[in-house]
Amino acid sequence: MSERRRQRVAVVGGGVIGMSTAWRLASEGHPVTMIDPEPASGASRVAGGMLAPVAEAWPGEESLLELGAVSLGRWPEFAARLSRESGRSSGLNREGTLVVGVDSADRAELDNLAEYLASRGRSVSRHSGRSLRRAEPSLGPAVRAGLEVPEDLSVDNRVTLEALRAAAVAAGVEFVDARARAVGPGRVELDESTVRCEFVVIAAGSHAGELHSGLRETIRPVKGEILRLRARGTALPPPRRTIRGPVHGRQVYLVPRENGLVVGATQYEVGFDTEVTVGGVRTLLADAERFVPGIAEYALTESSAGLRPSTEDNLPLIGWVEPGVLVAAGHHRNGFLLAPITAETVVGLVHGSAVADEAKAADPARLGEQQ
Ligand code: GLY
């Protein structure tokens, strides 16, 4: 093994990005220390787990669409390796996604999305409400039209996180349950000690900006409330595919789980607040019921809120902050989707090898250029 591959790396932040990166680096032979007071407890635990670059595409975010599509293409191999190295399920669900709408304004929005995707060389098939209900019998009569996006997948985020932790442990990652206060070249300052290393990867989500002056005010928290539902004995089974779309202009998604659904998500900018509001739960349930009326018979097992780490242009920051210090944060709505390409890019940067062209759009150097 080359000297470079034995260099010690400290990863700050144990969400899906930090855990994926730590695992991949350790698998490549690096001694890796993961620093997090409570790994897998933040936004990654709350997440819906959609891998949906196409269904969530937005005009003006072409680089994000391309980056997401590349990472989605990496997911089957990433999941197979994760299962192999963890001895667990990766949580990957290969059923696709339906984007549906209930009124004429929603239909116009679906038409706009289909046209935009066609302009980017991605065609989606359009369906009537009746044909959608043949594919997913739990869809209600209010659903009038939709698009089928078979390539957009999902994961059970908590199953994936458990597999990532097991794979990281198996690859030799050392876990330090402590809060990092600051990061510099070759060191991570904890409350009462310092972790020394050759490289640091800042993967601390919404808190990344607190750790290094070069990241100050680059990432802001965007709150998302989300619900978990379980199908009870007599209720109609949940859809197999992810269902998402506008309900009277608001976006809602229903992501399948073993015998249940995750319903999300609200989107507000209210600092680091993670309390769930009555209004948030009411809106999510009402909107989800328009798509799948049978959820009225389901048990509401959890309501929670997470903080999406968001940047100005909704692209993540993946690259050098200064020599010896990398950032892998700011993944906004796309942490699980972008985990494979993020881990691959960080490994490439540490090794000094080429990174995918699409990942260059995430280089934090762009922040200086935008000012
Ligand atoms: N990925 C979906 C969300 O952020 O709500």
Automatic annotation (TrEMBL):
<dbReference type="InterPro" id="IPR012727">
    <property type="entry name" value="Gly_oxidase_ThiO"/>
</dbReference>
<dbReference type="InterPro" id="IPR036188">
    <property type="entry name" value="FAD/NAD-bd_sf"/>
</dbReference>
<keyword id="KW-0784">Thiamine biosynthesis</keyword>
<dbReference type="GO" id="GO:0009229">
    <property type="term" value="P:thiamine diphosphate biosynthetic process"/>
</dbReference>
<dbReference type="GO" id="GO:0050660">
    <property type="term" value="F:flavin adenine dinucleotide binding"/>
</dbReference>
<dbReference type="GO" id="GO:0009228">
    <property type="term" value="P:thiamine biosynthetic process"/>
</dbReference>
<protein>
    <recommendedName>
        <fullName>glycine oxidase</fullName>
        <ecNumber>1.4.3.19</ecNumber>
    </recommendedName>
</protein>
<feature type="domain" description="FAD dependent oxidoreductase">
    <location>
        <begin position="8"/>
        <end position="347"/>
    </location>
</feature>
<keyword id="KW-0560">Oxidoreductase</keyword>
<dbReference type="GO" id="GO:0043799">
    <property type="term" value="F:glycine oxidase activity"/>
</dbReference>
<dbReference type="GO" id="GO:0005737">
    <property type="term" value="C:cytoplasm"/>
</dbReference>
<comment type="pathway">
    <text>Cofactor biosynthesis; thiamine diphosphate biosynthesis.</text>
</comment>
<dbReference type="Pfam" id="PF01266">
    <property type="entry name" value="DAO"/>
</dbReference>
<dbReference type="InterPro" id="IPR006076">
    <property type="entry name" value="FAD-dep_OxRdtase"/>
</dbReference>
